[in-house]
Every structure is written in C-alpha cells, then in structure tokens.
Amino acid sequence: MNFKLSEEQELIRANVREFALKYIEPVAGEIDANSRQPAEIFEKLGELGMMGISYPTEYGGGGAEFVTTMLVTEELARACPSTGFLHGYSFGLIGHPIMTFGTEEQKQKWITGLASGKMIGAFTLTEPGAGTDVSAATSTAEKKGDHYVLNGTKTFITNASIADVFVAFAYTDRAAGTKGMSCFLIPKGTPGLIVGQHFEKMGIRGSQTSEVVFKDCAVPADCLLGKEGEGFKIAMSALDAGRIGMAAMSTGIIQACLDESVRYSKERVQFRKPIAAQQAIQWFIADMSTDLDAARFLYLYAAFLKDQGQPFSLAASKAKLFCSEAAARHTSKAVQIQGGYGYVKGSKVERLYRDAKITEIGEGTSEAQRMIIAGAALR
Ligand SMILES: Cc1cc2nc3c(=O)[nH]c(=O)nc-3n(C[C@H](O)[C@H](O)[C@H](O)COP(=O)(O)OP(=O)(O)OC[C@H]3O[C@@H](n4cnc5c(N)ncnc54)[C@H](O)[C@@H]3O)c2cc1C
How far is the CA of 266 from the centre of ligand 1 (A)? Predict the structure, then answer.
C-alpha cells in the first residue's frame, strides 16, 4: 500500500496552486458576480497542458494518470469551484467517453482539440422529463440513409452556448428500452441544433447552463459514438468518470473552507481573544480537517482504480456522495465561523456555500448515489 503521490504529481499540484493564486483567486469573485465563463483562464490552462494532462501524447495530451488530473481539478476548485467543475467535466463527461468508445478519427478530431484547451464539449443528456431517470428521455434519432435525424429537447446543459462538440443522447430504437439509446458527437453549427434559454444559477456561476433543442437535426452516421444502442452504457460510463471530478471539486471546496476558517478564526477577536481559542470553533475546524482527508482519500482511490483499469463505478459514487455532502456541510460551518462577515456578498465563504450545492445535484443526485451504493451492498 502506498499513500504517497509521486514527485511529479506533487510538483504539478504545487504549480497549479501557484497558478490559481496568481490568475484565478483574484478574479473568482468577479466571475461569480458577472456570471462569466473565464475563457482567458482556460486558454492559459490549455497552454500549460492542464486541459489534456491525462490524454495520450498522440492526441496532444500529457500522458499523465487520471489521479493527476483530479489533483488539478481539486486545486482549481479550491480557488474557484466553477473553474474546477469545468475542468473535471471536460475530462469526465466529454474526454472519457470519446477516449473509451471513440474511433481513431473521433479521437484525433475531438481529443486533440480538448487537450489544447481550444475546444469545449457539452454533455447533452438531461431532458425536462428525464433527470435522475435517464431512461425516460424522449429524444429520438431516426436513421435516414447515411444520416441520423435528431429531435428532442435537452435541459440544464453546461457549456451549450460555447461548445464545439455536443455528446448527445437519443433513442434510435425506443422499443428496445435503454438498449435502444445511442450517443452522437455533434459539431456546433449543425443545422437543427438550437441553443435555447439560458439559466441564471445560485452557484457555479462561472459556468454557462442552457437548454438545447434538436429540430430535424441531421448528422452523418460517422457522428455515432460507439455502436447503435450503446448510448445508455456510454452515458453511465461518462457519469462514473464525471463523479470523480465532482468529488475532487468538492474536496477543493472543503480545503478552501479550511483555509478560510483557519485564517479568519485566528484574526477575529471577540471577548479579547481570537475566536480560534474557543473550543466550539476548534471543533468545527477539526471536523473540516478530518473530512478533508477522508474526501481526498475517497476520490483519489476512485481515480486510482480508473488508472488501474479496474471497475471504479461504485468507488466513484461513494466518493461523490461523501465529498459533496461534506462540502455542503463545511461551507455552512465556514459561513458560521465568519458570522455576518461570512454571510455578506464579497465574502469567499458565501460564494463557496452557493457553489457547493451543485455537487449534491449534478451528475447524479445524492439520492441517486445512495441507490447505486445500496444496490451494490444488497446484491
Ligand atoms: C448547474 C447544472 C448543470 C448541469 N449540467 C448538465 C449537463 O451538462 N448535462 C446534462 O445532461 N445534465 C446536466 N445537469 C442536469 C443534472 O444532471 C440533473 O439536474 C440531475 O441529474 C437531477 O435531475 P433533475 O434535476 O431532473 O431532478 P429529478 O430527477 O427530478 O429529482 C428531483 C429530486 O427527486 C429525487 N429522486 C429522483 N428519483 C428518485 C428515486 N428513485 N429515489 C429517491 N429520490 C429520487 C432526486 O434525488 C432529487 O432530490 C445540470 C444541472 C445543473 C443544475
């Protein structure tokens, strides 16, 4: 058993921390206030190789392990959860399914673009009537000659307004149930692919979320990812990888809570001494520090299993469940430690508190994770 990160991983982590302190921390509040996706940060991350770090070198990646990628996600989220979220999303929900199920041409086209940081993907699964119950989707893809014609409406799609490629799911054979769902890689600008309403959000406001409508959207047959009927399997596989990203992002949020709580409780004086001298505050901090270790071990273990080529679905669900609920718990405590100063706009913990909530909802709610975990335990 070896709990030690490699020297290279430690170095990358330290470099990303330095980058985040210099380029992300100073603008994270503004990104949130203006609901602005920071293209300039992703451009720099692309130049540093951080948007392709674990893709194979033949596709412009860095050839590192998924563990290393997740350490980067954690460090980015520590400074700005929106940025960490988008980093993990790109690898888990977009890169992972293309790398796992894509043809050589699809990998050359899309992974190379994603790795450079110049291309952005949108995972296009959720529908107004199909959230946790993915199988209730009604979008269809009808084969007509050498094309598929998609019709349907998707909702809550991250990156839709700026994506170069949509990893989209639709039924090619409704009667076959989940075995009749297929997955497509649809380039932006395809006629009939319409980006609809944009959603204003409580948190992760540095990411864009929109509706997507397919209206007689015709795509060539070579846009199919995997085989016809493999869409549900591809969606579940992508979500498994994405959940490790959500867990890493949540861990970055817990780390930020600890950073902020230690700093503030040493500075804030009440009753003639720093509030850090009060046992009540120390216990909040002790719980944060303990959950931080547990969260980090859980997501790193899931990422390690993925790197080893072992099944990681259950470990990813457990990591996502624990890390996200711990992030929600500790952002609340971090606001509590800062009292009124933590509650007002402009305080970092106020932003973290709002940003943390999505981790319990996106890429499968906490209830969905419990269904998976209980299902495995009771099998
Ligand atoms: C900011 C944001 C970004 C998103 N980005 C994307 C994206 O890029 N691509 C994409 O495809 N989707 C995206 N989503 C959608 C997200 O994955 C869904 O919101 C999520 O899966 C939950 O679906 P729902 O909102 O329809 O809730 P529902 O499924 O309607 O659930 C409502 C409540 O009921 C509970 N529930 C449902 N079924 C059960 C059950 N069987 N047992 C117990 N409880 C149950 C849920 O846990 C939840 O608490 C995003 C959502 C948000 C908010």
Answer: 39
Q: Which of 85, 139, 156 to mutate to test the pocket of ligand 1 (most atoms within 8 A of CB)?
A: 156
> What is the reported pTM?
0.98
Share of the chain above pLDDT 70, in %: 100
Identify whether residues 244 and 363 lie together within a single domain. Answer: yes
The one-letter code for the residue type at 140 is: T
7: annotated active-site residue: no
Specify whether 352 is located in the same domain as 227. Answer: no
> What mean pLDDT do residues 142-165 have?
98
Same-domain status, 217 and 138: yes
pLDDT band at 130 (very low <50, low <70, confident <90, very high): very high
Q: Which residues of 265-302 are buried (b: 16+ CB within 10 A; e: fewer)?
A: beebeeeeeebbeeeebeebbeebbebbeebbebbbbb
Q: In CATH, what number is assigned to the domain containing residue 368?
A: 1.20.140.10
Domain containing residue 156? 122-231
